[in-house]
Amino acid sequence: MCRPVLFLFSFLLGTALHAQRVSAYLDRDKILLGEQVTLTLQADDINPRLLSLGWFSLPDTFNHVEVVKREVLDSANTGGVNTYIQKITLTSFDSGRWQLPELSITLTDNATGKQAVIKAPPVFLEVLPVDVSGMKDYHPVKDIIEVEARSRTWLIIVLAAGGVVLLFLLWWFLFRNKKSKPAVVKPADNLTNYQRLLKQVEQLRTANLPAKEFYQQLDDCYRTYFDTELNLQTLQSTADELMVSMKWFLTDEKLRTEFYQLVRLAAAVKFAKYIPDETRQAALNTVLAVADNINQYRIRKNAERVV
Length: 307
Prior knowledge:
By secondary structure, the chain is an alpha+beta fold.
């Protein structure tokens, strides 16, 4: 846990000299990608009879960091002076070391109208990517190797010749083979996109697949669902592009964080040969929760169109 750093300021009120204390600190200064951290803002020894308080100003989004939740400003009175505390939940989906904006309060002398600004020391948050470096089965993704472009004239000739042969065989099959049987058309399953995803998830839940194949199939399932249900193009998207596309559909902050962590984990298994702990049931439950969230989103949108 980070130790709070206090900033003391002396504010002259008539003939009385009183020290106000300001602090801003995180409950921890390092998090994994998508995890949440609590920022505590505190001002001590504020006499409300003599001073008016202008509280810290923190935007919803700043320097790769997002505000998840703001708790109400709380206060406690001891010996005629107040202590004010507010807790703010933060998260970040970009790895790096990020500095929070300048945090300060404004004190106004109720008698003279004079103002003073008290700044808290800088606060930094370090966001780490999914930690797979310590695993014995971890292999980093190799860089793309550029290859020299070669002439493919021979390939074009082979494809053209193959096309001619294919057309001839098709003509012979249709017009010469009179005993050919009509093709059997496989009936549709008549399931909705949502029902089809639920069926696929349950099949994965009971299947005993290797980790790579399990997360590959799970990744294909929810990407296909997003494309058919939301008319997106996610099958060829990178993990970062997928998270950006889904940000506006996942309104629940906690669920969005869990899904982003699943996407990162699936990418690590797929490309870095990372073998995770037994988290399959949690991954399946996250996909079901995301599907329920999107299904409710579609129902709400359809209801709005009817109105």
